[in-house]
Write a structure and sequence with these properties.
The complex is a heterodimer. Chain A is an alpha+beta fold. Chain A contains seven helices and five strands. In chain A, α3 crosses α6. The chains are: A alpha+beta, B alpha+beta.
C-alpha cells in the first residue's frame, strides 16, 4: 500500500501530511491533524456535517480521497473560518438567533454559510436554502438557521467599513 | 481502518500516465473521478477493488472547447463549473439545469460529467440532458481514441460501451441552435434526492409545426432512454392541445418503469406522460 505525501495550506498555515493512498480527507483532518470541528455523521456525503472548503468550493470531506488534493491546495475548516471576519459574523449570528439545538450539524452549517456568503453576500431566502441544501439538521427545522444567515449577511457591509 | 484505505489509489498527473496504468486492467470500476458515487458505494459495502486510478484534475480532462458544430466538454468538468458557466448555459441549457440539481453544492463541487456518465445509473441526473443533444462520448486508450454516440453508450443497467483500458475524456455535444430545451427532475425533495423520474427535451418548432424533437427520460428503464416513438409521432405535426394530450398518452404507453424504494411503477408511468406534456407546453 503506497503512502502519499502532500503539502497543503490549511486554515492559512502550510502543513505537510503523509497518509495511506485511500484515506479520506475527513480522517486526515480529524485523526492526523486534530481538527475535530468537522464532524462525521452519515459518512456518505448526504448530511454535510463534514463540510470543508477546498480551493473556494464547499465539499464533503467524508467521501473525498485526500490524495486527490494536489500540493498547494487551500483547505478551510470551521476552525479557520472562526478566524475570518465573515466567519465571526456567522458564529455570532447563530448564537444570537439561537440557531443551535443538539449542535452536531452546526460546524457544517457554518462552513456552508461561509461558502455561500463569500460568493453571494446578500443572498435571498431561496439562495440561502439552496446554499444550505446539502446540510441536514434533524432538530431545528432550519427556520432559525436561515434567520441566522440573514442576520450575518445584514452585518457584512458594516464589517467591511471597519 | 476505513474500507477505502484498503484500496491502492494511484494519482497520475497526466492522461498519458493514467492510460498506462489502465492498460493492464481487466475489470471495471477502478477509475475514480470526484468519488461522489464510488466512495459512497465502497463505504456501503460494494466490494472495493484492490487498485483504483484517480482521474480527478487531469489537465487533459478539464478543457471546454466551443466549436460551431459541437461543444466539447472535458469529462473532468464538475457540475459546479457547468452550473455557473454562462456560455454553456446559452447552448446547452438542459445540461446546465441538470448539473444544478445534482445532490447539493458540496456534491456539485466534486461530481464530474464523466463520472456521472460512467456510473451509468438510470437515475444519473445529466444523462437525459446529454442524450437529447444527439452528441457523443470520446474515449481514449493507449491504442487511440474513439467516439461513441450517446444513445448507444449506456447499453444496460450500469453497463457502458467502454473497455476497462479506456478512459472517458470528453463529450462532444451539438448546441441547441434555435430549438428549445427543458429539464425537469421529480424527487422526494429538491436537494440530495435521487430522482423518481426526470426528463430532458430539445424541440424545434417553426411556424407552429414541430421540426425536430428529442425527448429523454431517466429512472424509467435500466438505462437513460430516448422516447423515439413519441419523437417520431411529434415531428411534422402542428403543436396543439390535442397533440399534447396524445403525446402524453403515448409517452405513458411507451415507458415500462419498475417499482423500487423511490417510487411505484404506476407513478413513474403517469409522471413520464406529465413531463412530456410539460416540455410541449413550454415551447
Amino acid at each position: 500500500m503506497s503512502t502519499i505525501r502532500r503539502t497543503w495550506k490549511i486554515n492559512g498555515k502550510t502543513v505537510a501530511v503523509r497518509f495511506p493512498a485511500g484515506r479520506r480527507l475527513l480522517d486526515v483532518l480529524r485523526e492526523d491533524l486534530g481538527l475535530i470541528g468537522s464532524k462525521e455523521s452519515c459518512g456518505e456525503g448526504e448530511c454535510g456535517a463534514c463540510t470543508v472548503i477546498v480551493n473556494d468550493e464547499p465539499v464533503v470531506s467524508c467521501i473525498l480521497p485526500a490524495g486527490q488534493l494536489a500540493d498547494g491546495t487551500e483547505i478551510l475548516t470551521v476552525e479557520g473560518i472562526e478566524k475570518k471576519r465573515v466567519g465571526r459574523l456567522i458564529q455570532q449570528a447563530f448564537i444570537e438567533v439561537g440557531a443551535v439545538q443538539c449542535g452536531f450539524c452546526i460546524p457544517g452549517m457554518v462552513v456552508s454559510s461561509y461558502a455561500l456568503l463569500c460568493k453571494n453576500p446578500k443572498p435571498s431566502t431561496k439562495a440561502i436554502r439552496e446554499g444550505l441544501a446539502g446540510n441536514l439538521c434533524r432538530c431545528t427545522g432550519y427556520t432559525k438557521i436561515i434567520a441566522a444567515v440573514k442576520l450575518a449577511a445584514s452585518r457584512i457591509p458594516a464589517a467591511k467599513r471597519t | 481502518m476505513k474500507i477505502t484505505e484498503k484500496i491502492d489509489v494511484r494519482f497520475p498527473r497526466t492522461l498519458a500516465e493514467a492510460l498506462r496504468l489502465q492498460a493492464g486492467e481487466q475489470t471495471r470500476g477502478k477509475l475514480l473521478a470526484g468519488g461522489t458515487d464510488l466512495m459512497v458505494q465502497w463505504a456501503a459495502g460494494v466490494p472495493a477493488p484492490e487498485r483504483a486510478t484517480s482521474v480527478w484534475n487531469l489537465p487533459e480532462l478539464s478543457a471546454i472547447e466551443m466549436a460551431p458544430d459541437a461543444i466539447e466538454i472535458g469529462a473532468g468538468v464538475t457540475h459546479a463549473f457547468l452550473r455557473d458557466c454562462v456560455q454553456i448555459r446559452r447552448h446547452l441549457p438542459a445540461l446546465v439545469a441538470a448539473a444544478a440539481t445534482v445532490g447539493a453544492a458540496q456534491i456539485q463541487s466534486r461530481g464530474t460529467l464523466g463520472g456521472n456518465a460512467a456510473n451509468a445509473s438510470p437515475a444519473g441526473d445529466t444523462a437525459p440532458a446529454l442524450l437529447v443533444t444527439g452528441g457523443s462520448v470520446v474515449l481514449a486508450s493507449l491504442s487511440g481514441r474513439r467516439e461513441v454516440p450517446l444513445d448507444r453508450f449506456w447499453i444496460d443497467y450500469r453497463k457502458i460501451d467502454a473497455r476497462p483500458d479506456e478512459i472517458i475524456v470528453a463529450f462532444r455535444l451539438p448546441p441547441k441552435g434555435r430549438a428549445k430545451e427543458r429539464f425537469r427532475k421529480i424527487g422526494t425533495r429538491r436537494a440530495q434526492a435521487i430522482s423518481k423520474v426526470m426528463a430532458a427535451s430539445r424541440i424545434l418548432v417553426e411556424k407552429g409545426r414541430i421540426v425536430s424533437a428529442a425527448i429523454a427520460l431517466g429512472s424509467v428503464a435500466p438505462t437513460p432512454v430516448r422516447l423515439a416513438q413519441v419523437e417520431a409521432f411529434l415531428v411534422g405535426k402542428k403543436l396543439s392541445p390535442k397533440l399534447i394530450d396524445e403525446a402524453e398518452q403515448l409517452a405513458q404507453a411507451t415507458v415500462a418503469p419498475i417499482a423500487d424504494i423511490r417510487s411505484s411503477a404506476e407513478y413513474r408511468r403517469w409522471a413520464s406522460g406529465r413531463l412530456v406534456r410539460d416540455a410541449l407546453e413550454h415551447l
